[in-house]
């Protein structure tokens, strides 16, 4: 992957926030920029970020794989992350996940054939009292997700295109 001049300029702005000897601290920001531009972070993009920041490629890969906000392959327009940690599981998290799998006709980790939805699991989202919870496109938290609320969410997202 070649880094475009505009992407390099964005990287430069992020790196400028840190002392020169700590430029690697901008790794998450740089990965976020790549994902925004390409929809996911490819292995080639990881290598380009590593080279730009003066990091070992494996160190960038470790960041990409540690945080589930970074997509390592193309995903649907709407990425649905369902919390599968124990508190949510004890409060119908498994039911919510199963309902979405049935409703969308896909299993966890898959994308619908129309490219609209990708269903993923998520670690704790920090809203255990509101479970089951999920995150839409890594930005919008949804709480108390009953089957009815899940259906409303899916219908609303489909209608928003």
What does this structure look like?
With 161 residues, the chain is α+β, with helices and mostly antiparallel strands. Helices cover 46% and strands 11% of the residues. It has helices at residues 5-15, 27-38, 43-53, 57-66, 86-90, 93-104, 147-159, and strands at 78-83, 117-122, 134-136, 140-142. A four-stranded mixed sheet has the order 2-1-3-4, covered by helices on one side. A hairpin with a 3-residue loop joins β3 (134-136) and β4. α1 (5-15) packs antiparallel against α2 (27-38) and α3 packs across α4 (57-66). The longest helix has 13 residues, at 147-159. The mean pLDDT is 93.
Summarize the structure.
The chain is of the alpha+beta class and about 160 residues long. The protein has seven helices and four strands. The two termini are about 30 Å apart.
